[in-house]
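Data card: per-record layout.
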Amino acid sequence: MDPVGGALAVGAYLAWGLVAIYWKALGPLPAWLVLSHRILFSALALGVVVTAVDGWRDVGRAIGRASTRRALLASTALITVNWGLFLWAVISGRMVEASLGYFLNPLVNVALGTVFLRERLRPGQWGAVGLAALGVAALTWTTGRAPWLALALAVTFGAYGLVRKRADVGAVTGLFVETALVLPAALGAIAWSEAGHGGLLRSRDAGFVALLAASGVITAGPLLAFNAAARRLPLSTLGFFQYLSPTCQLLLAVFAYGEPLGRERAWAFAAIWISLAVFVGEAWRHSLSLSSSSSSSSPESSVSSSSSSSSGT
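The structure for this 313-residue chain is written out next.
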């Protein structure tokens, strides 16, 4: 494994896993307002990146193609909902359930690939998906309610990756277009909050506003590191790092912020962790049997975290 690529991948996924600390610090603001500022400053930061890499022609091509434009409209809606749900989960103290959603995400990707991309699952993959479903069913049975937040995060994140996989656009270009598309709504929400709610930002000091403005770099930085790692590592290898993010989220939730795990959730997590172990082990075994050229088009590659779907948190 390329050591630089490995370091970049670890850095990106650790950043996505630990970013909850940053969002938690913005908790005095409501999640919808934090989301609006994240969109604003992400669009600005990504615009700088697009300019630096001379990517405006790529932006123009993406907007100019009707099929890509439709795909980006759909992915914009999905990533906006996903970001909003995650921010709400962090700020409202539901990080444990949010981490469950991102542990489920690789298996949701497998299911979506089977349904929409007609990918065929091997027996080990079917076993992994079945174990994860069993864990969710057990959690629903023991608590009397389905883990809707976790499922919504997993499905919106997985669907976002599916849509972006089928859109012919790069990760940075696509995310810039997505944030630009929803920017008018974000600006409207910010203006409304300042005019009608006594100036939520005017009551904060300059340090807090600067912290909020850093959300653009917080969003763009790990994505750039991930893109650099993706150029150096096979996606089948890169996908193994993705479990760092929800692991960090879970550890932060329980040990830093005191969220209860509970026996029912612990059993569900155990079932899902076993399913992920089966999934990763089967994928690794299969990847070893393929040449490097064929592994790039294997089912693991298509369902492991892609650069477009790794901006969910």
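Known properties of this structure: The chain has a mean pLDDT of 83. Residues 66-91 form the longest helix (26 residues).

See the next section for split statistics.
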